[in-house]
Amino acid sequence: MNKEELNLERQKLRVEAKFRLAEIKLQREQFEAGRSGHTGWRVILTPTGAAITAAIVGIFGSAASKWFDLTIERQKQEVMVILKASEVPQGLDESSRTIQRARNLIWFAEAGYITLPQRYLEKLRSDGRLNIDEDPSAPAVQSNSPPSRFQAMKQAVYNRGSPPDTFLSELIAWGKTAPDDIFTEDASKKPGDIYASVEKQLGPWRSTDHRRAVMLEVMRVLAGFESDWNWKEGPDLTNPTSSDPNSADAGAWQVSADSMNLNPELKRFVMAKIGNVDPKAFQKAIKEDHPFAMEYAARLLRHRTDYFGSLFQSQLVLWIRRDAVKEFEILIGGEN
Question: What residues contact residue 315 under an 8 Å CB cut-off, 6+ apart?
Answer without folding.
Answer: 158, 225
